[in-house]
Amino acid sequence: MRAALLHGVYRLVRRRAWLVLLSAAIFSSAALFYIRDLPMRSSFLDIVPPGDPILTKFQEREEIITKNDAVDIILALQHPEHSPRDAERLKAAAESIVQKLRENPEFVSFSFTKDIQTRRGDELLSLRDEIFVKLREYQERLRTVLPATSEPAPGAPGVGDLIGLYAQINAELERIFGAELDWRRLALNPVELVKRFEELKKLNQSVKEEFDRAPGLIQNADHLVTDLLQTITEINEAIEKLLTWPQELYLSHDGTKLLLKVRPRFSSQRGLDYSRAVTRSVQEALQALKLETQGISWGLTGPYVISAETNYQLNVDMRNTTIISAIGVMVVIILTLRRFFYPILALIVLFLALIATLAWAKFSVNGLNLVTSFLPPLILGLGIDYGINFIAHFLHERRAGHRLETALKSAIVHKGSALVTASLATACVLFGLMSASSPGLYEMGIIAGVGVLIALAATLLILPALMIVSHILFRARPPSVGADPGVCPGRTRGFAPTWRLARWPIVVLTVGGSLFMLSQAVHVGFRFADEELAPKDLPSKLAQQVERREFDVGTSGLAEYFLFFAPTLEELRRINEGLAELKAQGYIDAVASLSMFLPSDPAEAEQFFKGVSLTLERDLQRARAAIERQSQELQRLQDLTVQIVRLKGNFTRILDQVALTGAGENVVPDIQAQIAQLEGIEASIQGLEAMGARLGALRDRLMQLHERVETLLQKIAELQQVQGLLKALPKDLQERFVTEEREFIVYAHLKRTTINEPRIYSEFISAVRTFSTDYIGYPMIQDHLERTMKRDFQISTLLATGIILVILSIGLGWGWALVGIIPVGLGFLWMLGTMRLTGLDFNFANIIISSLLIGNGVDYAVYLLHGFLEDRQIEVAWKKTAAPIMGSALTTMVSFGSLLFAATPGLRVFGLSALYGIGFTTLFTLLFLPALLSFVRPRAD
């Protein structure tokens, strides 16, 4: 069936060469147009298995991620003055940028002031304590000025009592004057009269002192209420000022740079196109403002910009490495085949195959990801092998004197059969990657597997068609007829003793070196740190370094954060306590949550608040009652005045009676003193009546004070509670600290060592699980990818080995299949050992190296074994196959070696790993395998 198919291919190419080329040109043009905007997905989330719990959790929490992604604009003064004017210039520039970007509805939030700071919460809690101290101070003053109780002191007569007493005295005196009582009897009893006058004197003195003191008390109370009202106003202003969060400019340490954060509507995870559009919009706005003319330079960083620039750099690297690879491959082919024209034809065919492969990548999996980004050099490295072998066989036939058609038929039918076997083996190994759970490896398998088959089809169809058409157009001369330089029996006789002499040293050195490499290979690790594999010299990366160094922040967004979710306040406090311990142990360096603004001990704070609130309110109630009582007393002063005037009149009549009768002259001085006291009381009453208006005003102000204190205490009480605090916080902080489901969010910024050191990260996760079950963080994806792709690496390696053994056993038998796999196994082992010695680890870029090495490297052993099994003479087989094997290996190594010129570290790591693997595999194929085969006895003629 294979032979019939290959004969059909030959007939098609021979008879319809122009049609084949026209069809190829049309198809390639359409494919090239189709991939003009080939998507490049550079997010870690794109290589996480779909439906994975971690990916699902990130998708569920996308709203939180969206609110933390931002484009970071760093404004820098080119010629700073190191004065306050620097900040003014930077602020003015930031305001102009904000005004410009507001014209674009894609941007929803702007900030160039410092983010939430723990000190804001500390200030709020400290202010609360200061408020209570001040209120207690005024409470004590209130107690000293106003009566502590609303009732008069025992034994202290009120105005009503005075009215009653004076009325009683007046009534008694008037009864005397009305002859109801015997005046002479009273006058003849001076002791009784003096006693009554003495009591009245004391009463009058007490009343006068009380009335004289009242204006001072009212004035002091008025001053106190004024002071207390002013204090309440100041406290309210302090709270309002603090709750307006007047944050300072986000200046660098030296004050010459300003950080402006711009938040788009959607997260950077929305896709590469969105990140590009956002970045382009910001760049255009900044360029339109011409800040350079104002002496201000700017730089961009953040997940949007880094994603766009990384993708751009990947495209540049893909283009540059493809060009370098093509030039290098062409040079190697020219040197190997000693021809110039045919290598150009092979490269043309290979580029057409590459275009078709990229079109297949876009059609099947919508572009390339982090793992498949180095596909062009990969296809060039794998596909050029078919062109070299096809052209080498064709030239061999032409040198043998065969016509063009005969040489092409032999190349298609005979060499094509071997190429089909080799390509199927390589494709099957690559298709084996489709069993991986990671989309990165799965997509590499489906793209590269089909790409190898496309390269084979192009080699068997387009390359011979080009040869035929070029022969017709240019009438190319056939190579000179003669012995093929690749096979010279006369020059192989000396190889027999050479291999017999060298085989033991080669075997011993290989075995000894392999044991050493084995001791190193077992320590090769798996690291998937994004920053170690992404380009480091991008403008956004350099700006990110400035941001970290001069603004004390991590990467914009959540790349270095863990987010914890707490459904209750108790859970929130437990998480904060656990994170505080981890911070003390050095795993994290910052924690932000709503707890920063809540009392550390809510029970103690609540008890403290209730105590102050109740006692102050009780004292104010007493003061209000005392003022009310005083007001009522003042309202009765007129009645008291009537009684005093009446009493004075009665005392005057007594003096008149004494003057007429001469009786009771000894009481005259006392009566005169009583009259003088009463006149003094009258004067005091007149002063108190003038104080009535002030007392009414004081009563009203005290009522106002009570209401304002009550409002203030209520506000403080609310600030101690979650819901009240949420109302006080700005909206953007509310969104950052609380989800729409009313879950509390805690942000923990991890140290770089915690993220990048697997052991430390494992310790961190173990500690986190003791106090929380609901958390996410980008380092979780890194760790999960490491474990997932490590498992996929092991499975794909075993699967590739099994596939190759099965395919080799069909053509060579199980025994020779095991022999053929030895160079690949040794090459893989030495590659691992060298990676360990040079400090390389497996990552998402070079994780597929085992499948590529097994699929591509085994071809070299197959070529050598096929030649050896013809006559069991290793010298002849080595001479026939060494040059083609070396040529194929060199072209593959040149293709992968071109990745060393990439700016992306991940591509360089893959290229270096591939060079190690293919180089060692080729070395052991050309040295160790012949040394082993030299122990096999030649077949008897």
Automatic annotation (TrEMBL):
Chief localization class? Answer: membrane
GO CC term, one of those recorded: plasma membrane
Q: Which UniProt keywords apply?
A: Cell membrane, Coiled coil, Membrane, Transmembrane, Transmembrane helix
The record's annotation in Pfam families points to: MMPL
Stated membrane topology is: Multi-pass membrane protein
The residue ranges of the SSD domain are 344-469, 817-935
Name this protein carries in UniProt: RND superfamily exporter
